[in-house]
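Section 3.1 - Work completed
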Amino acid sequence: MAIVAPVVLLVLLSLLELSLMFFSTLTMQYAIREGGRFALTGQTSLDPAVASQRYSAVIQKIKNNSMGFYDKLGTTISVNGTKYTTSTYSNAMFGNAGDIIVMRLDCDWKVTTPLLAAFFTDGKYHFAVATVMRNEFFF
């Protein structure tokens, strides 16, 4: 038991972390899709204090649907190939009415299980999720 138990526990923890990595990928895909659906309507209604900031409402919608993974994964957002940081967010970020927009989130999961970390570059599982949308004709 003393010889087999550590190996079995390491394999079980690796399996658990691998399943969490795939769960986070699916969750972030759902979050970006919901953020895209919100963005295409041109709404700014999520936060009344910043009603004029459409980008803030869209990013908040993504965060709300990410189950906390957005902040944990060190996510960066790209729109039409341009990467944005919190200092470069703007209302033009998600396009105008009728524009086709490609939104992408790049995420990094820090692998903690030693058995799995050897299979990933720098011990991180890097993944990207994206959605494509055409903005409605909003006013």
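Second construct:
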Amino acid sequence: MLDLSASTWWWLAAGALVAAELASGTFYLLMLALGCVAGALAAHAGLGGTAQIVAAALLGGGATLAWHLKRSRQPSAVPAERNHDVNLDIGQVVHVQAWAEDGSARVQYRGAAWSVRFAHPGIPKPGEHVIEALNGNELLVAPAKKH
């Protein structure tokens, strides 16, 4: 029968949490794994079971809280359909020759015909427009600013 030390159990728990994080992408599990590392180090230092649990809880819980506070202070990400980092078409200019009554049009863009929809209030006018977002295979555009 295996006689595993307390530190070994802490290291196994830390490894399991890291594996779960890799499978799920939940970064908070890494913070809890840090807590298990603190528990393992407390066990290596010869501290009792209660001290190991307190060390794990303090570091794991503290790291989780710190990461949560850091993330809550960051601005929310731009939705993918409007994010230039996700879609390089955002910000590109297209020329609309004529608009339909429903605010749609067809344009040539990147060597193909695309559906375009006017994304602002008011009546669209023919001319240069900037791609603001993509909705499936439809470009959402706004009038280009004159320089």
